[in-house]
Amino acid sequence: MLMRCCALAFAVLAAAVPAAAPVNDFSVPAAAPNAPLIRLSDYAGKVVLVNWWRTSCAWSQQEAPKLAALYQKYKDKGLVIIGVSDDTSDTVQQVPAYVARYHLAWPIGLNDQGEIVRNLVKPNHQETPQNFLVTPNGEVTALGLDRTPAAWQQLEDAVAKALAAPPGGTPALKAAPLDPAPPLSLPDMSGKTVSLASYAGKPVVLNFFTANSCDWAGGVFAKLAKDYASKGVQVIGVDLYDDDSGVNACVQKHGATYPILKGTQAAQRAWIGSNEGWATFFITRDGKVFKKILNSIDKGLEAEVLPKHAEYLVATR
Length: 317
Fold this sequence. Notes:
This protein is of the alpha/beta class. It has helices at about 10-15, 60-75, 95-100, 115-120, 150-165, 210-230, 245-255, 265-270, 300-315; strands spanning about 20, 25-30, 35-40, 45-55, 80-85, 110, 130-135, 140-145, 180, 185, 195, 205-210, 235-240, 260, 280-285, 290-295. The protein is built from 9 helices and 16 strands. α3 (about 95-100) links the parallel β5 (about 80-85) and β6 (about 110). α6 crosses α7 (about 245-255) and α6 crosses α9 (about 300-315).
């Protein structure tokens, strides 16, 4: 499992995102049931504090009351906070109680291992808590942790300064354009060639997996395929180099009924960008990649976040 300890010094955290760097859009599934995705670009032109936290982190717990007070002080001046929980499957059930305990009155999302950990909270700097300030002109600054009163004051001063800045022109932050899905044509377990193009017009969930990641998430994908088949969603699995017995054991264990294809290095590189790791892609009806999730982790939140992305695919026309 990818370990995330509770926090490093400000200098280390600041290295994750350069000061005043252009911000990239991201979306995360809302923690609340039946709530839509939370998208940063929905708050374009606003001052947004992105708070990365975890229920089991003592420093997140210490920070939460101060964040609640900060929000009450500045919300009428335009401050928006987006909280993103980095909890895993063994602690995510504690999120609602945590939110209620600390009176967190802003949108709360879940880490889906998507663009938020590629573009904002970098893979090697996922300690909690962290804060990122997004300005109306679409720039982001990594702020420090309140290990001292001076560090917290630095954070509040940055928020106040951003809110007091004169309005600029058109907000630079916009919804990220979707890239076309690469082509895919691979043999299934019986040797029959299956092409992504044959599912044109249908939303597709494409999962590159190994025997390891199948143990972690195979049941989630099998359930997703069954739950969303009637809504037109097609799930496809692409195994990365396991022998047939390993693939069949996974299929039988989880009752997968969707197509399982045999991956190649060329397909892995075309989709994932390297010949390492595994990934899941949510592809819209018109063949665009809406969500790219890299490297599922042990105790990940697939059961909580994947259906939210599937719902988005169903709703998108």
